[in-house]
Amino acid sequence: MTAFADLHHADAPLLLPNAWDHASALALAAEGFPAVGTTSLAVAAAAGLPDGAAATREQTLHLALVLGSAPFLLSVDAEGGFSDDPDEVAELARELYALGAAGINLEDGLGPPDRHAAKIAAVRAAAPGLFVNARTDTHWLGDGDGTMRRLDAYLRAGAHGVFVPGLADPRTIAALVRGLDGVPLNILHTPAGPPVAHLADLGVRRISLGSLLYRRAIGAAVDAALAVRAGRPLPDGTTPSYAQIQRTGRQDGSE
């Protein structure tokens, strides 16, 4: 965990791009990102399943199997652990760590904070080397009420860092950073929110891209198909060659 934890305390915040398969993760790592996360929305969408419904445990473990030995640090978006049973969430964490994951992101989905704290404590006991990023959805699904109370509970349970997606107001972010007193705060980047440099000035230590890259990729694919159908030039953008994508394939042919 040390190398991944250290990225949260470096001179600049950890900018964590989120991949959805082997090729996207390797392409991001090739551009110098030392760590790559996964995105639960993309994992679910690719399998034709809903996000946030505890439906993609198998697919998440398979992606960790594919990426866990790659030459970058891997953080896995595991929704709420795919179970309300702390022991089952702990077993998931144990499997992810064995596959090579360096971190896990666990969201509370605005469920009871004591239940989420119990999951975090169980994960810490089962996989001590795994960096636990505890997410609260007070701003994502609510009005922000109770954010610090929930984060305090998760930190007491052993979380290494905390994640508050949906929070974009600079003053509120700065106040939360002060209240956390050195605990790494993770903020979800959005095109309409503060840019990376501003988030860094506010004291944010980790900036995730979430499903943004996946959604942009789907949009670009549809735009390209429409351009070809209409006889227009392809939209501006970088298109990797067949050979470049082929080189991201696993050399042993395994899955």
What CATH first level would be assigned? Answer: Alpha Beta
Percentage of residues in strands: 5-15%
Could you say what the CATH topology is called?
TIM Barrel
Q: Give the rounded overall mean pLDDT.
A: 95
Describe the global form.
globular
State the fourth-level CATH superfamily: Phosphoenolpyruvate-binding domains
CATH architecture descriptor: Alpha-Beta Barrel
What class would the helix/strand composition place it in? alpha/beta
Number of strands: 9
Q: How far from one another are the termini?
A: 25 Å
Biggest beta sheet summary? 9 strands, parallel
Query: How would you spell out the order of helices and strands?
Result: HEEHEHHEHEHEHEHEHEHH
Put simply, the count of helices is 11
Order of strands across the main sheet: 1-9-8-7-6-5-4-3-2
Rg result: 18 Å
Percent in helix: 40-55%
Essential attributes:
255 residues; alpha/beta; TIM Barrel; 13% strand; lyase; Pyrv_kinase-like_dom_sf
